[in-house]
Amino acid sequence: MTSSPATPSEESQADIVEHAALVASLRSAASNALAGTFVGPVVLAAMLLVGGAAPALAIGVPLVLAVVTGVLALRTRQVASSPTLADLEPGLRGIYILLFAHGLLTGGTTLIPMDPAGLDNPMYPVLLASVTVIVAANLPTAFARTSMFLVTCVPMIALAALSALLVGGIGIILAVGITIVGGILFFNARQAGAAFRTASELRIRNEALVRELEASNEQLDRLAHTDALTDIPNRAGFARYLEARLARQGQSAVLFLDLDGFKAVNDAFGHQGGDRVLTEVAARISDVLRDEDVVARLGGDEFVVVGNATHERALDVLADRIRDVISRPIIIDGRPVQVAASMGMALATADESVEAIIARADTAMYQEKRRARA
Q: Which of 227, 258, 293, 301 is catalytic?
C-alpha cells in the first residue's frame, strides 16, 4: 500500500521558510555586490576625481571597495547555495562583517573632502544620491532578517548624513532627507520581509497539501484497481492494463482460468481456507510470469493472465507452468490440499472490447473442461 508522506512539522516548516528568506536575501546581496565590484568603484573614482579629491583617495578607496564587494559577492553566493538552514547559518557571521564593511566604505566616501565649498561642487549631491540608491538596492536583504539591512545601511546612512551636516546649510536638509529615506526603506524592508515569509509559508503548505492529495489519489487508484485479498489487479485493473498493452503492441494472449476443487476446500476449511488457497495461487502464478506479464483476479476463483507470447507453442508452455504450480499441495491447518486449473486462451486485439476478450477466453476454458470430462 502506498503511504502518504509525512507532513512537515511546524518547526521544520519554519526552518524551510527561514532558509528560503535567507537565500533570497543573500542572492540579492550577491547581485548588488557583483554589480558594485565592476561598476561602483569606477563611477566612484570618477566622481571623486572630478570633485577634487586627492588622487590617492580617489583611487585607493574605490579599490578597497572593489575588493570588499568582490569578496562579498563570492561569499554570499557560496553561502546561498547551502541546501539547508543548518548548513547556511555558520557562514552568516562572515557575511555580516562584509556587509558592515561595505556600508562603512560606501558611506565613508561622502566624508572625503572634495573642495571647501562642498555643495558648490555638483558632484557632491550626486554622491549623496548614489548612497541613497545603494541603500534602496539593499532593501531585499531584509527579506530574511532586518539586521542584514541595518548592518549595511545604518553606517552608510549615518556617514552620509554626517557628511551633509558638516557641509552645513542645505546639507542639513539633505541629512534629514537621507535619514527619512532610510527610515522609509527600513519600514518597507520589514514589510517586504513579512510578505516574503507569508508567501513562503503558503507555498510550503500548498506543496504539502498537493503531495498529500497526490498520495491519496494514488492510494485510491490502487484500491480501485487492486484485489484486496490477493494484492494483484482486480477486474478493473486488468481492463486498464490490457487496454494500455493492446494500444502499445496491438495484440496479446489472454489466459482465463478457474480453480477445480476450490468449492471442496471452501466447504472443508471455510472461507479462511478458501482465501488461503486464492492468495497462494495468485502468488504462485505471479512467480512464474515474466516481468511483462500480469495476473489478475476477476472474482471468486477466476483468474486471468495476460502474456506476451502469441505463438501457440509459447502459450502452451506458459499454461503448463501455471498448471504445474497450481497443482502443488497447499498446506491449510497443517493439512495438504490440492486444486487444479481449467484454462482457456484467446488472442486479444485492440479492436475488441475487454469484456468480449474475457468472454472468448471464458468460452475456451469451458470447452476445455468439457473435453477433459469427456
A: 301
